[in-house]
Amino acid sequence: MLDEMRIRDLGVIDDAVVELAPGFTAVTGETGAGKTMVVTSLGLLLGGRADPGLVRRGADRAVVEGRIGLPPGSPVAARALEAGAELDDGALLISRTVSAEGRSRAHVGGRAVPVGLLAELGEDLIAVHGQTDQQRLLRPSRQRGALDRYAGEAVAGPLTRYRAVYRTLREVSATLEELTTRARERAQEADLLRFGLEEVAAAEPVAGEDTELSAEAERLGHADALSSAATQAHAALAGDPTEPDSVDAGTLLAQARRALDGVRGHDERLAALADRLNEVGYLLTDVAQDLAGYADDLDADPARLAAVEDRRAVLAQLLRKYGGPAHTHGQGTLAEVLEWAETSSARLLELDGDDERIDELGARETALRAELAELAAEVSAARQAAAGRFAEAVSAELAELAMPHARVTFALSRVDDLAGIELDGRTVAYGSHGVDEVEVLLAPHPGASPRPIAKGASGGELSRVMLAVEVVFAGADPVPTYLFDEVDAGVGGKAAVEIGRRLAKLAESAQVVVVTHLPQVAAFADRHLVVEKTSDGTVTRSGVKVLNDEERVRELSRMLAGLEDSELGRAHAEELLAAARAPRGR
């Protein structure tokens, strides 16, 4: 239950404390903006959108604080404690700050929390019903939502299962449509992949083959120069048999070794150098032999060179076509070609299996549509059952609101659609909500034909119908506090008295806060708050005050006659209060 709310620098309110209590609290006042700020403040505490335009002119931020009493074991208390909040003698302190720059902060139990937590807690704390809710309820989609909400789990359960099947059906249908409508493009894609795979298979590339062929082509292309260089190097190392007088590296090295061997015993350092010359001699002999073998093995084979170049040309074509992103810059590799072939083979198998997949998806779509039809029928039956109870409850409320002969009914209908689902021998349109179109009908008096409430009700009748709907909802909602924001607009006279009486009856089991402009409604309140406006000529401010009995008479007189001290108005106000307090009034 909401015990108290403090508002600072919000709209026209500079600093006001709204003291609430159990039972029925009425909020009135001359300034509509001030009363709106009371409702807006509560909306901010419940996680509503923060608008920097709400900050009072000249202030740097607006602050709304609330104190909410919670019963032991409350799920709201458990959720707040889970978020790190602390309770103050069983009460939860909530605050919301909105800066002039648009920044918003929320605190619960002294702990900074996301604004979303306020909305989460608010769902179990306060139900807000206002004129905007009335306008939304005029739309058939909202009326269907209202019926589903009233029906509770009876509709929510099968509707949840329905929506799960509905989502699956949409996915299957979308895939099936893509496969059938894009069959031509997919066939072309398959042909291109098949051609490419055949081209790669015919070439039989091996990873790294292109690198090896490049090296071989380089060697074969310069075979004569390589052979001549190897022969010259061998002759320089080992000597040329055709020139006996030539001096080679082996002969010179042998001379150097002989010169050192004769004196190596006299100096260890020189002996070490002689050993190193021996090692050089062994190495020189090995190199000379390898050069001789290299020159003998090297063969300038034009036929082999031509074969290598042809193979390289084939591989280069594969690299250009299938070598991956790098091949556009001449840097593709055969490994990329082989990877493309592997990926494309899997894709081709997928494309070639489209016909089989289309058959499978078609069968699944048929089964899903049949399952969806069964669930839709279950949802419709639950709605139909709830519609009767809802209509009876609203009609009973209307009898309490000076419309004793009015009857409310719910019309559930379906729309034929050849692309829909089969249900009860018809092919009907369907959506995420099911197959039902729901509309609230009103027969205001006996003999009148039921008509949609948007067309068949006057302004006052519409307000009472909507208030009856809200009261029915309030009776079903497990929240301790209800706020009604001028839901009595367009009503007056006896009907206004009955509205006040009905709200007072509701307040016997819950806390009810009503922002109203009707004295007949305010008279039934247990507690009366007034929003007062003052101005110093430059700045307009508003505050909220709890009225005592005398002040309440003056306020009701103002609301009735426009004059606070009118004798006739005061007499009427006192009579109205006496009637509201009489046993028959409550």
Automatic annotation (TrEMBL):
InterPro entries: DNA_recomb/repair_RecN, P-loop_NTPase, RecF/RecN/SMC_N. It holds the Pfam family SMC_N. Residues 14-538 form the RecF/RecN/SMC N-terminal domain. It comes from the Bacteria. Keywords: ATP-binding, Coiled coil, DNA damage, DNA repair, Nucleotide-binding. CDD domains: ABC_RecN. Residues 358-385 form a coiled coil. The keyword DNA repair applies. May be involved in recombinational repair of damaged DNA. Belongs to the RecN family. This is DNA repair protein RecN. It comes from Kitasatospora kazusensis. The lineage of its organism: Bacteria, Bacillati, Actinomycetota, Actinomycetes, Kitasatosporales.
